[in-house]
């Protein structure tokens, strides 16, 4: 008769597949021993076919637990009171947390030993164990979701003629040394858990909502969707210098683009909140979580110093030609405002970084459009790209954004911008809504 079960010992009367839970629980804690052929009360009953049981145990643990737990498991037979018992010794694993492969990194698949029982771990406990196992970087840590797809990301890589396969995913750090998806992969996947919330307000405070959106999906898709939403609300105001008409948008496109990229590359994704963008009549505020990287001050970024919190994500954006080099974004935002009296400003607090882009046209008296019989307005000639689009429409009666991308071999953002400019100029008319939008001639 043995003593009762405890923190380090588990009894099993016979082999059952669920024994893997106890093995995982011991490996995720301080290790322990499982004895097969012993009743819960400690009575020794032995096993009839120890070799078959050892094969079953080894096969089950090898096939159903991830990462590979076998280097930390020793299976053998021992004689107790003249009876044969299968003894499974489990050491603390170095690649914790271990989990049931089919369940994934979820409470239903991750267990830890507490007292004489194996308990499911909480989501927070799983994250903490990942950090404690030596993977302090969020983007290199193992993703808790391993059922990932990359339709949007793969399509964007294809547009840029960048190879994308499993070997490239390992090079880009989407797959770790344990051959599992990392959190970087999660961010770029269609299942990305982070969202971006955009709120459009009337006036200069939060008293009256005009619209609000929450964008999800791959972080790249969110970048594109958010940019388009802001661009739709980025009005153009016309002024005149003599006979020349000057169109100026409320916000420089480059400033918007760089601010959005900055909020994605530098945010701390260990925070579970969303990126926040607030659009007022007089400004846009882009807020990202995480603040400045430890050791840097706000003045440092104006000197061109950059320490990306997510260097692997930044490297992918660089490869996709979304960013040029580290430390140039803030300068681009400032230069985009040129000699404009209103300048962007940057603020940081504990765990938060905010970029505020002022509306360049706010407070400027709008000039009425002169009558054609009095003033001849100078207009820029159409670019070759716009001319090609209009020629296509003349022949085919209509064009879509995707057809524009294929026609000019350009990306989604540029195609959308050119079509919008042609529509604003009255050269094209927008028809339909949502995904069914198409453009027709004058």
UniProtKB/TrEMBL annotation:
Domain called Schlafen AlbA-2: residue spans: 5-122
InterPro entries associated with the record: RecG_C_sf, Schlafen_AlbA_2_dom, Schlafen_AlbA_2_dom_sf, WH-like_DNA-bd_sf
Cross-referenced Pfam families: HATPase_c_4, SLFN_AlbA_2
Gene3D superfamilies: 3.30.565.60, Schlafen, AAA domain (3.30.950.30), Winged helix-like DNA-binding domain superfamily/Winged helix DNA-binding domain (1.10.10.10)
Protein name: AAA family ATPase
């Amino acid at each position: 008769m043995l003593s009762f079960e405890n923190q380090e010992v588990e009894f099993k009367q016979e082999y059952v597949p669920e024994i893997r839970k106890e093995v995982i629980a011991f490996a995720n804690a301080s290790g322990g021993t499982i004895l097969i052929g012993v009743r819960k009360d400690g009575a020794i009953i032995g096993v009839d076919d120890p070799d078959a049981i050892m094969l079953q145990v080894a096969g089950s643990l090898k096939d159903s637990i991830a990462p590979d737990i076998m280097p930390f498991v020793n299976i053998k037979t021992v004689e107790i009171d003249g009876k044969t018992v299968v003894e499974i010794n489990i050491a603390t694993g170095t690649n914790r947390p271990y989990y049931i492969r089919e369940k994934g990194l979820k409470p239903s698949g991750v267990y830890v030993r507490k007292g004489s029982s194996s308990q499911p771990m909480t989501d927070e406990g799983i994250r903490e164990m990942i950090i404690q196992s030596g993977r302090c970087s969020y983007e290199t840590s193992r993703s808790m979701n391993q059922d990932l797809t990359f339709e949007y990301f793969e399509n964007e890589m294809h547009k840029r003629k960048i190879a994308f396969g499993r070997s490239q995913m390992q090079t880009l750090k989407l797959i770790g040394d344990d051959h599992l998806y990392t959190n970087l992969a999660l961010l770029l996947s269609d299942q990305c858990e982070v969202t971006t919330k955009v709120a459009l307000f009337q006036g200069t405070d939060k008293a009256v909502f005009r619209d609000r959106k929450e964008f999800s999906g791959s972080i790249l898709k969110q970048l594109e969707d958010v940019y388009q939403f802001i661009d739709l609300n980025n009005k153009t105001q016309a002024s005149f210098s003599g006979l020349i008409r000057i169109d100026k948008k409320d916000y420089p496109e480059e400033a918007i683009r760089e601010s959005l990229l900055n909020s994605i590359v530098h945010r701390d994704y260990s925070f579970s909140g969303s990126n926040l963008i607030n659009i007022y009549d007089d400004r846009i505020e882009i807020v990202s979580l995480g603040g400045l990287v430890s050791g840097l001050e706000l003045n440092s970024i104006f000197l061109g110093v950059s320490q990306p919190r997510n260097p692997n994500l930044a490297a992918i954006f660089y490869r996709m030609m979304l960013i040029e080099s580290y430390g140039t974004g803030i300068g681009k935002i400032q230069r985009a405002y040129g000699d404009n009296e209103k300048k962007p400003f940057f603020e940081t607090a504990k765990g938060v970084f905010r970029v505020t882009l002022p509306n360049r046209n706010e407070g400027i008296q709008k000039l009425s459009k002169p009558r054609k019989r009095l003033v001849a307005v100078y207009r820029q000639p159409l670019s070759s790209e716009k001319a090609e689009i209009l020629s296509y429409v003349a022949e085919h009666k209509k064009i879509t954004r995707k057809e524009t991308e294929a026609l000019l071999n350009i990306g989604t953002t540029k195609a959308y911008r050119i079509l919008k400019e042609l529509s604003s100029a009255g050269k094209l008319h927008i028809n339909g809504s949502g995904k069914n939008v198409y453009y027709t001639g004058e």
